[in-house]
Amino acid sequence: MPTTHATAHAKAGMIARLNHPDYDRWAAQVRNTGGCRQPIHLRGKVDHYDRATGQLLHRYTTKHEPDGILRVPCKTRRASRCPACAETYRADTYHLIRAGLVGGKGVPDTVTTHPTLFVTLTAPSFGAVHARQEKNSKVRPCHARRNAATCPHGRVMSCTARHSKDDPRLGEPLCPDCYDYTGSVLFNALAPLLWKRFADSVRRHLAKLGGLLLKELRHHLTLSFAKVAEYQRRGVVHFHAIIRLDGHGGPDAPPPPWATADALTQAIQHAAKAVSAKAPAYADQPERVLRWGDQLDIRPITLNGDLTDQAVAGYIAKYATKAAECVGTLDRRINPLDNLDAYNLRDHARRLITTCQRLGAEPDLAELRLANWAHMLGFRGHFSTRSRHYSTTLGDIRTDRETHARDNDITTGRLPLFDEDTVLVISEWKYAGKGYAVGDQLLVAAITGTSLPEIPGSRP
Length: 460
Known about the structure:
- By secondary structure, this protein is an alpha+beta fold.
- 32% of the residues lie in helices and 17% in strands.
- It has a five-stranded antiparallel beta sheet with strand order 11-4-8-7-12, sandwiched between helices. Strands 1, 2, 3 and 13 form a four-stranded antiparallel beta sheet that branches.
- Helix 4 crosses helix 6.
């Protein structure tokens, strides 16, 4: 393969960085970011003053750093943007989830005795799509129909293929013109509201089972949960949730005797069928009612067995770093003026995006902000959320890690030991960009052992 100008430029930049006198310090910054692919550049200083005398005790400034900047991790959760920072987010989420199942990080280990279920809420069907069908570990035909009907667009609604796991047709409609793209987008937009109403309905049903008024329930029982949204290949979200019953105030107290796993299961089954959300009428289209799909999975979480605390925590954490990329869309906001032809989008993803943009222009649907969330195919909620009493917080986990790193720097002499009560710290920082030059990217990949992003224009 001939060497292009972009590749030659990258190699020249790599050689210049290697031969620079401050290379060792630059490499140390790279390691300190944990291999972040798009580190944030900061320019500024930190001063430590004696509160009593005003004397400057210590100053850190980026003037003496390579390129005059300090590189810090971007801390994104998206694995498609930065695998290194997403892995940190995944690990933090894993420990947060698992602490709510077995205790730790401020949660008592008695929480293992509380009724806890793993629940999956799915979306309804918006049309037949190619799917991988398995039974008894054998792959079955996708949509085998002996006398398959022909749709109004002339397509036979049948597929006899036995799809592999990486088949690009998975999630694609058998007939794109028959597929309900409007319903798919509106369901994604209203999914957060459906979840809220579902949780409220579970509480109401539990209060009924306990012979309590809803306003009295919180004095006897706390519904704790942690959930994550996952995109199916067809482009709609479904929720995986850990739902736990605690006593008054959270995990420190056991739930009342009547609040059993069976009672929680009954409340979940009732709520999944009972709740709905209405999409407003627009143009010549009537108001539309959306509900959860018929597929509802409820399983107990155990310390031993098929569904252990480690398995559930790992499952939730994995999807906390993903978004709609599996559908073939982009991982950034789409500007209305963007030329979608310039991106390598699947036809199904393109239709979902254009549906978001079309509906986003409808005044009656303005509050759904569909055009702003076209890259998420209409979904505008938080991907990973938890109730207040479920476990610790990601902020607390990050603070613990930062405290450990600071204590280590003080122990090794990288930072001075000051009495926080007698020292005034003044910081001044300015944003100075992000990422690496193409030549530096080659070195970062070698130093950290991470994958190398494609260099623009590097292919002839």
